[in-house]
Every structure is written in C-alpha cells, then in structure tokens.
C-alpha cells in the first residue's frame, strides 16, 4: 500500500517544525547518561542536521560523533 506524502511526513523519523521541540528535548535530556554520551548525542544530532536530516544514518552519525570526541580528547 502506498502512503501519501502526509502519511509519510507523520511517520518519518526526521524532525519537522511540529516535532522539533520534542526532538530537541530528547537530545538535551541526559537523564541517566554520562557526560560523554550526552556530548556524542549532541554532536550526532548536529551532524544529522548538517547533512539535511537524512533517515537511516543514525549509527553512522553516532560513530562519527564518537570519533570526533575521541579525537578532540586525544589532542
């Protein structure tokens, strides 16, 4: 069954103007996370935004953010 554009928009994992505050809240809530995890989460989110919010790249963004942090800590 094909989805209409409206249905796809409501089920997409990409943030929209309507969901943006919820996404930001999820990113910024570090409940139960280490400072390192929170830093990685924020950097991964920034990478996601820089790339135009593509779907399905979350692991790649996380790993790149983790590598960025490791590199910054080693210098």
Can you put this structure into words, describing what you see?
This protein has 75 residues and is mainly alpha-helical. 65% of the residues lie in helices and 0% in strands. The longest helix is centred in the C-terminal third of the chain and has 17 residues, at 58-74. It starts with a helix and ends with a helix. Mean pLDDT is 76; it is low at 1-17.
Number of helices: 4
Q: In percent, how much strand structure appears in the residues?
A: under 5%
* Span of the ends, CA to CA: 52 Å
Percent helix range: 55-70%
What is the 3D shape? flat
Task: Give the SSE order as H and E letters.
Answer: HHHH
Structural class: mainly alpha
Query: Which assembly state applies to the chains in this document?
Result: single chain
**Low-confidence parts:** 1-17
Rounded average pLDDT: 76
The beta-strand count equals: 0
The largest sheet is:
none
The Rg value, from CA coordinates, equals 15 Å
State the main characteristics.
75 residues; mainly alpha; 4 helices; flat; disordered N terminus
Please summarize what this structure is:
This protein is an all-alpha fold. It has helices spanning 5-11, 20-28, 35-50, 58-74.
Layout of strands and helices, then pairs:
Blueprint: H1 5-11, H2 20-28, H3 35-50, H4 58-74
Helix pairs in contact: 3-4
